[in-house]
Design goal:
- The protein is 31% helix and 21% strand.
- It is an alpha/beta fold.
């Protein structure tokens, strides 16, 4: 008689410890409101919208975990999704590592999602999870580039920068989140790759292990809210969703 295998468990880690200075002074970026609701709440709801996600770990500013916990308690999730808030570190990599440390060992798949991508559709979340469950150790959603990209020799203080190359656009992708991993792979990457070695996302850490990373289609509405104009676009997307989909 075969023993039934246990269900595959998926968790999401949302680093939200950054200040987001490009959006201007004031409240930390993740706590800025979008349609009257903090962006962090939208990001948490986006992860919880996937029925595969049973646990969400929010990594708060080092001195703001209590504040973030109280805030999220005002926006309860469905009973099937547990929520934990932990204090983060001084860098994104350190914050993700602290979020991973809060995960129980029976988690199989972990998503890492930017709090500043509040409107990622659930279909994108599910596609990333499915690819990890199918055996990929690391998965990123991404879009083809619409613009030509130039490689330059950086110059100080805004001086004209010489172009040194034009990468073939068809081979490039703009990467989004959530990025998905087997928990074992991502923990190994964070334990192995030294801070500051040039990786700008978690998939980059995994690449440095020599492990394969695959791309699945991203979505235009999974853009990152970084500058004031991004916030205007996010408000427009949210207004359309509320008018046509009953989004809250």
């Amino acid at each position: 008689m075969s023993v039934p295998s246990r269900p595959i468990r998926t968790a999401a880690v949302i680093p939200a410890a950054g200040r987001g200075v490009r959006l201007g002074p004031g409240t930390p970026k993740a706590l800025r409101t979008l349609g009257g609701t903090p962006m962090l709440v939208h990001a948490v709801r986006a992860m919880a919208a996937s029925r595969a996600v049973s646990l969400i770990v929010v990594v708060a500013p080092p001195d703001g975990a209590t504040e973030v916990d109280h805030l999220l308690n005002e926006y309860p999730l469905a009973d099937r999704t547990d929520l934990v808030v932990v204090p983060g570190g001084q860098t994104r990599q350190e914050s993700v590592r602290l979020g991973l440390a809060a995960l129980p060992d029976d988690i199989d798949v972990v998503l890492v999602h930017d709090a500043a991508r509040p409107l990622v559709p659930v279909d994108t979340v599910d596609a990333v999870i499915a690819a990890v469950r199918d055996g990929a150790p690391a998965v990123v959603p991404a879009l083809p580039l619409a613009d030509t990209v130039k490689q330059v020799a950086p110059q100080p203080q805004g001086a004209p920068e010489p172009v040194v190359g034009t990468p073939e656009r068809a081979l490039l992708r703009a990467v989004q989140t959530p990025q998905g991993f087997s928990l074992e792979t991502l923990r190994k990457a964070h334990d192995t790759v030294v801070e500051g070695e040039g990786a700008t996302d978690d998939a980059g850490l995994v690449e440095r292990l020599g492990a394969p990373v695959v791309v699945v289609p991203g979505h235009e509405e999974a853009f990152k809210v970084t500058r004031p104009l991004d916030l205007v676009l996010a408000e427009a997307v949210l207004a359309r969703r509320r008018a046509t989909d009953g989004y809250v």
